[in-house]
Amino acid sequence: MARPDVSVVVVTWNALPWLEQCLDSVRGRDLVVVDHGSTDGTLDVVRERYPDARIVEQENKGMGGGNNAGMRVAEGRYFFLLNSDAWVVGDGLDQLVAYADAHPKAAVVGPRLLNTDGSLQRSVRGEPTLWRLATEYLFIRKLAPRSPRLNPLYAGGFDHDSEREADWLYGPALLVRRDAVDEVGMFDEDFFLFSEETDWMTRFRTAGWKVLFYPGAEVVHVGGASHGGRMYVENLRGHLRYMAKHRGPKAAERTRKLLLFSLRLRALVLRREAYREGIRFLSSGDADTLLS
Q: Using CA atoms, how far apart are residues 148 and 142, in angstroms rounded to an integer?
């Protein structure tokens, strides 16, 4: 039997109520669902409504580890990594495959992302640097959100209406070329959640592949539903791990100090528990200690 063009990989953890809309949007595709211990009936829904799906059950290994497990058993020449709180609009997946076929050096192609109200969800990103993280965590980007200089992490000034190369793409929906994965490798599972796609796309680009944004395909993404916004410390840890891996331990330590300073400023104005948790984490040791 011929290899399918694309295999869809969906990682789930208590994925209701969005899961059915997600899976309906890719019905008829080679589908792999990787479950991380759902207790809300997620697997019952998959087994009952999507009997052709292959199910992988494992302990929670984060998004990278979950997607890796799905890609290992997927059969397509492309992997479509789709969050359980996202769904494809119309023939968007076919459009992504056709675009990737026309751009053989593309390791990753990402669609235009929409919020549930139809508004744009910005997905093109700049590779993290100390300055770019400062524009985010010190709210510098709020001064001029459309400025490439003051909002470089979120590609300020780019309207998401045209095709372009990107450093990396926010990852609720990514079409990934199997040949590129075979060359570069899968996600680094040391990243539990957050920054795993940033690391992956840096590795693709370093190896000579491209990361492309294609607005001719659209995906709706709820945003934050898969983790409920409860993983703030993991986001900070992801920044440190990325900087340590790609820019060295000194850069990681400078990043820790920047993040700690910024969260202390934020906590003076906004008394959020997430900021207090972040401060406790970042002040509990140097970057090397926090990542060991």
A: 12
In 176-213, which positions are buried (b, 16+ CB within 10 angstroms) versus exposed (e)?
A: bbbebbeebebbbbebbbbbbbbbbbbbbbeeebbbbb
Which pLDDT band holds residue 227 (cuts at 50, 70, 90)?
A: very low
Q: Provide mean pLDDT across the span 265-280.
A: 92
Among residues 277, 288, 278, the alpha carbon closest in space to that of 253 is found at 288
- List, for residues 80-108, the tens digit of each pLDDT value: 999 999 999 999 999 999 999 999 999 99
Residues in contact with 119: Cβ distance below 8 Å, sequence separation at least 6, in sequence order? none
pLDDT tens, 60-80? Answer: 999 999 999 999 999 999 999
| d(C-alpha 165, C-alpha 167), whole Å | 7
Helices (H), the chain: 19-24, 42-49, 62-73, 92-102, 130-137, 178-184, 196-206, 232-247, 249-269, 273-282, 287-291
Q: Residue 83 CA to chain centroid, in angstroms?
A: 9
Alpha carbons within 13 A on the beta-carbon side of 202? 16
Question: Mean pLDDT over all residues of the chain?
Answer: 94
User: How many whole angstroms separate alpha carbon 271 and alpha carbon 276?
Assistant: 8
Is-contact 232 225, C-beta < 8 A?
no
Amino acid code (one letter) for 262: S
